[in-house]
Specification:
Blueprint: H1 40-45, H2 51-59, H3 73-82, E1 88-94, E2 100-106, E3 109-119, E4 123-129, E5 133-135, E6 150-153, H4 156-170, E7 178-182, H5 192-202, E8 215-219, H6 223-230, E9 237-241, H7 247-253, H8 256-259, H9 262-271, E10 280-286, H10 294-303, E11 309-315, H11 329-341, E12 347-349
Parallel strand pairs: 4-7, 7-8, 8-9, 9-10, 10-11, 11-12
Antiparallel strand pairs: 1-2, 2-3, 3-4, 5-6
Helix pairs in contact: 4-5, 6-9, 10-11
The structure holds S-adenosyl-L-homocysteine and iron/sulfur cluster.
The site of S-adenosyl-L-homocysteine (SAH) has 18 residues, from strand 8 and strand 10.
């Protein structure tokens, strides 16, 4: 197996401690965007008129006037005190495939979101990939975001505001046409309190009303936080980035495996409470000559025994920060066939969108320095 240029675990700052809680390593930015994360009753308690009406005015961007919620100057002033800043769209890059990568400035930091309409010509359904942190602490050897290191957590207000700003800029107008995936920058379960609050707000029927089943949180495998996610009252779907089928290789590709090895991760997935017809998505990034052997295909299927799942194969998206290549189409076909022959029921291949503008999975990175 090829040796990877990985930092040792000790040098990956802010990695959550084994079995510990999810205390954010740095508090999210104070105030600034906090009003976006308040529920209707909380707005009312803070003197923002009728909480429900103000909440709807804030959370339904298609009702905004010139980018500002349609509320009286007095209420807007009160919201300013609570923190009404929105991320600013610094740049939009549209890919040939119709996806748009948006560069957003929030506080002093840059984050990225990727807007992916399903049918470019017809409009309609959109998958929006959003960030949960500035950078990421997990240090995965194949991921461009890892090269930034961890900068800070996004607050719940910044996460909600990120969604609303992108909706306002690019739609869809109706939330029933929106699917949200926490697959942008950052490890969402390393910021679970803020991510959970953002999901609660975004799914409130008085605002956007996004069904929790249209929200997917993807994680590199933080076991205690997977359990906490499973216990949330407003619970999104779970996706797990597996990416290797032996502890030895997963440790090397994904340092988090040193804290939570495959057996612990698998046990957490097996006890995750699924609703009827719900599946855990198992993401597997294929790195040519590294983790794409046919025996890996067999072990991948074996790992997924015992929980209802969907295997999502992702050919590696090349970038400057990692030495890997995707497998050939021919090998991808062979690998997929072996997964199916090993007994997997549902297997899909993710054709990443926005690759030509650096907006595909694992290509999201901003230079700091
Ligand atoms: N931190 C979370 C979510 C963000 S990464 C997680 O790791 O799950 C979203 C997905 O992109 C993960 O499945 C990850 O394995 C994948 N990914 C990272 N770098 C990639 C790359 N260069 N090519 C393809 N997929 C990549
Ligand atoms: Fe972080 Fe996910 Fe990238 Fe790993 S793959 S470094 S967890 S964003």
């Amino acid at each position: 197996m090829r040796r990877l240029p990985l930092r040792p675990l000790e040098l990956v700052p802010h990695l959550p401690v084994a079995g510990g809680g999810d205390a954010p390593p740095s508090a999210p930015s104070p105030v600034r965007s906090d009003a976006w994360a308040l529920l209707p009753a909380e707005l009312g308690e803070r003197g923002v008129g009728s909480g429900s009406a103000s909440f709807a005015a804030l959370q339904r961007p298609w009702r905004w006037k010139l980018g500002v919620p349609d509320l009286s100057p007095r209420l807007l002033a009160r919201l300013d005190e609570l923190g009404r800043e929105l991320p600013v769209v610094q740049r939009q890059e549209r890919s040939d495939d119709g996806a748009t990568k948006l560069l957003l400035r929030t506080g002093g930091d840059l984050i990225e979101s990727v807007h992916m309409p399903r049918h470019v010509a017809a409009g309609g359904r959109v998958t929006l990939c959003i960030s949960s942190q500035v950078g990421c602490a997990m240090g995965c050897g194949f991921c461009a975001t890892a090269s930034m290191g961890f900068i800070r957590q996004l607050s719940a207000g910044e996460i909600v505001a990120q969604v609303l700003v992108v909706l306002q800029a690019l739609g869809p107008r109706h939330p029933s046409e929106l699917t949200l995936v926490f697959m942008g920058m950052g490890e969402p379960l390393h910021n679970l309190p803020q991510v959970a609050r953002a999901i609660e707000v975004l799914s409130s029927p008085l605002g956007l009303g996004l069904a929790p089943r249209r929200i997917t949180v993807s994680t590199s495998g933080l076991v205690p936080q997977i359990d906490q996610l499973g216990a949330l009252a407003v619970r999104p779907l779970l996706a797990i980035s597996l990416n290797a089928t032996s502890d030895e290789q997963r440790r090397e590709l994904m340092p988090i495996n040193k804290r939570y090895p495959l057996a612990e991760l698998r046990a957490a997935l097996q006890r995750f409470p699924l609703r009827p017809r719900e599946r855990i998505t198992v993401e597997y990034v294929l790195l040519a000559g590294v983790n794409d052997g046919l025996v890996d295909a067999e072990r991948l299927v074996a790992f997924c025994e015992g929980f209802t799942h969907h295997i999502n194969l992702i050919p590696f998206n090349p970038h400057d920060h990692a030495p890997f290549q995707p497998p050939s189409e021919e090998h991808l076909r062979r690998f997929t066939q072996r997964v199916l022959d090993s007994g997997a029921r549902l297997v899909t291949i993710r054709r990443s969108r926005g690759r030509d503008v650096g907006g595909a999975c694992g290509q999201l990175v901003q230079a700091y320095g």
